[in-house]
């Protein structure tokens, strides 16, 4: 038997059903016994939504009102009634089993499954298997319109059935028409058989997908061909703590391929709020794209197309060790971070204890190491069930040796990413590249209080400098050379803000008046007049709002990531800042201006009046779980010597060592760091003759023997 099912939401109707995340408000169904061609009672049930605000399209098409829906039953009660009434009708027809039949995929996959998942309701097994009437109709009548162009009305018209929807209530006509279409399909002239229902996966299957396992075994040289690009999407804006199961729940109702969720990591090995998801076919991928800006908790998630090559870069790998570790089926993966470098397998098993046994004992542990075999402090652990994994997560931040250990849920793709990242690390650590030389450009960023700059807020994220110049119109001629500065966020993408230096305060005022709330593409852009000082505060990581200026989190700006070179802007390094070039860690940059007599390793302290420049991209402060990577700046010897000559500032030999501090509080300043290293400093009198220091700088800057780069 079939149960013909039709539904509607409080929002979009037809091809966009479920795309706006609105709740279900109507269910209509009727049992059809195929062998006897008999039908049961037609049932119509209103559903009380949490939000009774109906869209104009819903009001027009359905004729329903918020008042009428306010008296209806909630979804959980309606689903109970559905099961009871279907069982009763089947019993009257002498049947016991049935399969749902709906008009397309949307009602089941895009409405019922996502909504019940968000409301923590349990759907009965019948909702995990159904017939798509449009596909069945196209199989029975190949000459009819394509599946995606079919509707109940077009199918009825093709068969010459009555199509006057006004004769019945909304939903009732649709179900009656679907029943008539089914009877036509199973008639002797067509003799159609319903044999291959659509299925919805009960749960997401973890572990490496079969295609990636194939890559592991045969070490394919061209892995980009193994994953169809028409099945992959990129989800952006995920909560930092979200796991692969959370992402699978967001896409509930759609079939994700086994091991098809790959969480993306940043340069520090932490999750960056993005994931690549691979579905079983292109149809599921297209449905996933309709969930663009649907919500996970209080956050909306952006969903875009991605490629198979991108997926393999994140989820793929050729390590036999990883393949063997992930070969065990249906395991829960936990990541341990912060392990002592001397920790052994026995230490980890003892830390986890008997209440959370590891699958296979020592074989269920995978330590992450550098290419030379040194431990990184990370490890992955396999557990056979959710209960053991939960017991392990309760040990988060418990002590092993003298260190607290962090435990997180993980995925097969994260295991591969972390192993690939560390295994590609050079044996001799180097500082982040590229190292950008400090070379004065011909134009500067103003630092005074003159309001000769404008701030653009609310730019489209796809906007570039050319779009801004077009937006400015005739005022483009009043922009200073190199005067357009884009502000990027922590991920290196445009934040929607930009600053523009104008030739005068009057020009800035005219631009702000003329362009404020002018449209750029599909968004209006706010334009405010500001000063060079205010612009520098924001570019350095501070904030500018109605409450005034909030200083940046640190004095040194952050370098832009190597992959993002679209915008080249100039900025002023504070006069107190020092530039380091330890030859053991930084590659020397050769320039034609480099002097042969320049010292091989120098530290340059500019005078207070000096201004140094560099191309950079400023970041906003990052969330606590993803610390900002601060770059290291190297100046070529010739550039340093030339700058020193120009400012008549003496050159000091490079101190003998460089140390790096991690785990600093985000509000830490120079005073706190120097206080931490108290006892390892010269007195100011030892270098008064060498460095030109003002009283204010002298009170802050104490030259340590071993300089600290953060």
UniProtKB/TrEMBL annotation:
<dbReference type="InterPro" id="IPR050666">
    <property type="entry name" value="ESRP"/>
</dbReference>
<comment type="similarity">
    <text>Belongs to the ESRP family.</text>
</comment>
<feature type="domain" description="RRM">
    <location>
        <begin position="231"/>
        <end position="308"/>
    </location>
</feature>
<keyword id="KW-0677">Repeat</keyword>
<dbReference type="GO" id="GO:0005634">
    <property type="term" value="C:nucleus"/>
</dbReference>
<dbReference type="InterPro" id="IPR012677">
    <property type="entry name" value="Nucleotide-bd_a/b_plait_sf"/>
</dbReference>
<keyword id="KW-0507">mRNA processing</keyword>
<keyword id="KW-0694">RNA-binding</keyword>
<dbReference type="GO" id="GO:0008380">
    <property type="term" value="P:RNA splicing"/>
</dbReference>
<keyword id="KW-0539">Nucleus</keyword>
<dbReference type="GO" id="GO:0003723">
    <property type="term" value="F:RNA binding"/>
</dbReference>
<dbReference type="GO" id="GO:0006397">
    <property type="term" value="P:mRNA processing"/>
</dbReference>
<dbReference type="InterPro" id="IPR036397">
    <property type="entry name" value="RNaseH_sf"/>
</dbReference>
<keyword id="KW-0508">mRNA splicing</keyword>
<feature type="domain" description="RRM">
    <location>
        <begin position="332"/>
        <end position="412"/>
    </location>
</feature>
<protein>
    <recommendedName>
        <fullName>Epithelial splicing regulatory protein 2</fullName>
    </recommendedName>
</protein>
<dbReference type="InterPro" id="IPR000504">
    <property type="entry name" value="RRM_dom"/>
</dbReference>
<dbReference type="InterPro" id="IPR035979">
    <property type="entry name" value="RBD_domain_sf"/>
</dbReference>
<dbReference type="InterPro" id="IPR012337">
    <property type="entry name" value="RNaseH-like_sf"/>
</dbReference>
